[in-house]
Amino acid sequence: MEGFETDTIPIISPLQPALINKPNYQEHTQTWNGHVPKGEALFYQFDSGEEEHATLLIPDACVDFLFSLGPSPKGVILGSRLKETHIQLKANTRYFGFKPYSVDSMRSLGLNWGSLLNSEVSFSQLFPQVNIEKQLAEARTFKEKINLWLAFATKFLLKSTEANSLVGKSEVLICGAKGLIKIERMCQLSGYTERHCRQKFKEVHGFTMKKYNDIIRFQNSVRLLLASSTSADRDSQITFDIIFANDYYDQSHFIREFKTFSNLTPTHFKRIYSIDK
């Protein structure tokens, strides 16, 4: 794929502000599948707090493996989301998660990962003979949990494929451009027709390449929003900076698209989920 090289493009971690704000949050990023263009993954851990409650997950174009590590540990696989989702967290429970940055890095397991779009499946339904949930619950440190999961994922999940994957390289280019790349131009660089590129991408993800592009742009907007000063008199300037940086048409376009993915205005979102409160 001449002109379609991605080796030097940095990968930015997806952001879930509601989880980052949880007690004892930890995260670690590393490459877990060296066979694919986007083989990084995020490992994370947090405590739920004293009361059972629902917490917000925003679209990040990733699948999540999330485990509650209480007395009866259980796991769930959350598909990619095109809008905000609320997950119910148990009280006084530690959670451990694995977020591969690309569904193209995983074996199909008889399941098209795109079929999990906006839905979830029990971990035990896909892996009825595996006791990894209990092992994760018994592990004492975050590092031990990561090592346990890597051993499991390498054996059961890792997809070995050619590093010139069209879908994987498309993901890297879109993420590297922070959701601002022109799809038509990217398809031209791939050497394939635009129709072929779009079809292959949707087959893998269950949604369009344009929607993936929009989600990455939204994620970048969230990152800029939460990194900005909380001073009220700077709200207008912050909004203008984000609109300019992310190529939105105007303020109404930015707010409309932000609400599409989070069901909140940028100002309301920042007030609730600001990491530096």
TrEMBL record:
It comes from Vagococcus allomyrinae. GO terms for molecular function: DNA-binding transcription factor activity; sequence-specific DNA binding. Residues 177-272 form the HTH araC/xylS-type domain. Coiled coil: none annotated. This is Helix-turn-helix transcriptional regulator. It comes from the Bacteria. InterPro entries: HTH_AraC (IPR018060). Signal peptide: none annotated. SMART domains: HTH_ARAC (SM00342).
